[in-house]
Design a protein that fits this description.
Order of helices and strands: EEHHEEEHE
Low-confidence stretches: none
Largest sheet: 4 strands, antiparallel
Oligomer: single chain
Number of domains: 1
Number of helices: 3
Shape: globular
Strand order of the largest sheet: 5-1-2-6
Length: 97
C-alpha cells in the first residue's frame, strides 16, 4: 500500500507580493501551477484596488507559505465547500469580493 503524499501550503507571488495560497505535494508541483494557462488568465483578469493582480509579464514564483499564510489558508479551507477542485486562497483584497 502506497501512503498518500502529504500536501503542504505554497504561495504564488510576483515582485515579492504574495498573491494566492494553495496546497501541493511538492515544490515542483507548486511551480507547475504558475505555468497553467487557466491560472495565468485568472490572475490577469482579477483586480485588486482597481489594478490587475498580475500584469501578464512579471515572473510568477512559488514558495513555501509562511506560518501566517498557511494559517490563513487553513482557515479558508475549513469554511470552503468540499469539492474536487483546487482551493485557491487569495492573500490580497480582490475588487468585487
Amino acid at each position: 500500500m502506497i501512503p498518500n503524499p502529504v500536501e503542504r501550503v505554497f504561495v504564488i507571488e510576483t515582485d515579492g507580493r504574495a498573491l494566492v495560497a494553495f496546497q501541493a505535494v511538492s515544490h515542483q508541483e507548486a511551480m507547475g501551477l504558475r505555468k497553467e494557462q487557466w491560472f495565468r488568465d485568472e490572475l490577469a483578469a482579477l483586480r485588486s484596488e482597481k489594478k490587475p493582480v498580475w500584469d501578464g509579464q512579471t515572473i510568477l514564483s512559488a514558495r513555501n507559505a509562511t506560518m501566517t499564510e498557511a494559517a490563513e489558508f487553513q482557515t479558508a479551507k475549513v469554511s470552503a465547500s468540499k469539492n474536487d477542485g483546487m482551493l485557491l486562497v487569495y492573500l490580497i483584497p480582490l475588487d468585487g469580493e
